[in-house]
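dumping this here before i forget
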Amino acid sequence: MNILIAPVTVAVISALLAAAIAVVDKIVNNYGEVKIDINEGKKGLTLNGGDSLLSSLASQSIFVPSACGGRGTCGACKCQVTSDVGPYLPTETPFMSAEETSRNVRLACQVKIKADISIKIPDSLFNIKKFQSMVKEIRDVTHDIKEVTFDLQGETIEFEAGKYVQIVVPPHGKIKSSTQRAYSMASRPAEKGIVKLLIRLVPGGIATTWVHTELKEGDRAELVGPFGDFCRTDTGATMVCIAGGSGMAPFMAILYDMIDKGETDREVWYFFGARTEKDMFYLDELRALEKKWPNFHFVPALSEPSDSGDWDGATGLITDVLDSYLKTRIDAGKPREGYLCGSPGMIGACNNVMNANGITADKIYYDKF
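structure:
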């Protein structure tokens, strides 16, 4: 009996301490009503203090991008704070350049609203919306990538091809609170009533596990957006595009948007790298597009093709294939721009290849994930 009493006593004491801490926190950290001045008086908010700047703005339908859902791991939710909110936290400094710290650019998810505050954010964020959608279709395009189409239920989304939305992931399993994750839109801007995403399963990923194991057709889902600045220029320069995996998404939107807008005079080279045949997708669709659009060139490449001999495309690392084409096939006498979507490692390697072939850093645009 005494063996049972000790653990029960500890549990009771722990519960009482937790309750006491919660009460003290509510009393001590009751910051009362605070004001947020946005863009020098362009917009003002009055709300209860205590939450992060990111959450406080979201509660008033102002959505700052946050690919990690406010956990301080993506560095996306930057905004300039023009009033004193204390020193930088260690979670912020890795994401800040010297120029940004000189302007007191902060991570909105790491700034706690304790008093009145003044901030500056892009005016475009005032147009970000939260959409109540329904999952219209889920389709496996590879063994680990799902194409998910969301119906916006009568609402419409206005966006430039290349932008992304954030999925609000509800509590599930061991995940006790909702979070958000960012995914590029694969749907064309002309399809205003839907949003199509490509979501690759990441082992242990909060959002991807939920999408791949729990999300079903007919389910409701919240989307926030559009966000991002990964869009094509209007220079008319030859576009050299490189992607892998779910990085296919923004290029599908860009390519079809160019067709919809009659921009087919512009030359586009699209390199898509995968490891094996089972990782390659949309082949038939993109090859059909290549036949209809003389200035569009699709170059799929496998780094580890099977021994079956069925693969008739390029082989080798996508960087090697890209280097070969830049040297022998893509006219260096015309202006060229690079567009990349993929992992930081892939983007870094492709950047080096492009730089070595005369495409300078200021002509390379990318979307990391």
